[in-house]
Design goal:
Elements (H helix, E strand, L loop, with lengths): L9 H16 L4 H8 L3 H13 L3 E3 L5 E3 L1 H4 L5 H22 L2 E8 L2 E8 L14 E3 L4 H8 L3 H7 L15 H14 L2 E4 L6 E9 L5 E10 L8 H25 L2
Antiparallel strand pairs: 1-2, 3-4, 3-8, 4-5, 6-7, 7-8
Amino acid sequence: MKNAPAYAVSSVDHALQIAVMLQVEGPLSLSECARRLGIARSTAHRLLAQLVYRDFARQSDDRLYHAGPVISLAAHGRSRTALLRSVALPHLHALVERCGESVNLVALAGDYVRFIGSVECSQPLHVGNREGMVFPAHLTSGGKLILADLPPDEVTALYAEERWEGRLDQRPSLPALRRELTGVRRAGFALNRDRTETGVTAVSRPIRAPGAPAEAAVAISMPSARFRSQDLQDYLTMLAVTARDIEQDFARALADVG
């Protein structure tokens, strides 16, 4: 039997209840959420807005709220992802020290990428912590690198119309995406400027287990105002060293767990 915490936080509890209702029961309106929890509509609206911001919920054109990508994505390779994150974190901190910018580690989850590791730099103006957040894979630098390593039929399946029901307006053109992924594959890196977030530039390198396609990517993220094209090669060199070190430690860790 579960006992309620001695110091329960009602707003957190309400937000978690909404997330569970969306995941288990399906789309709900603002009024229905407020009624079910016995709270004011304005309170429910604030909770839902926070859940949408953190990708636990999304709002469709009919103003109903749906389970967001964080809770609707199938769990996949959690132990392997956790191992990769633990191996990578020291290298992410070292990369922040070298480049002076924030650094992220992303992994593919369906047609999204999930930020599984994030280390902020100390500069007053910087890209904040993104850990736990998700973004469409085809819009992020790291996501494009991972997609570029997938077999063509897997990319086709990920972007088939039936998988994008209710969000067809966000579905990319498959021919255009294939052309972009071909360029990314040839370059060996990806650059994203203001595409997922206005004012943010990111440059990424892939991370691969031995003999396998990319399953993650490491990215340096910075305010676009601070990005200079003449610094790109330096960033790529630092990313290459970090990716190599993560891959080596990850291979050893995988061998140790059998």
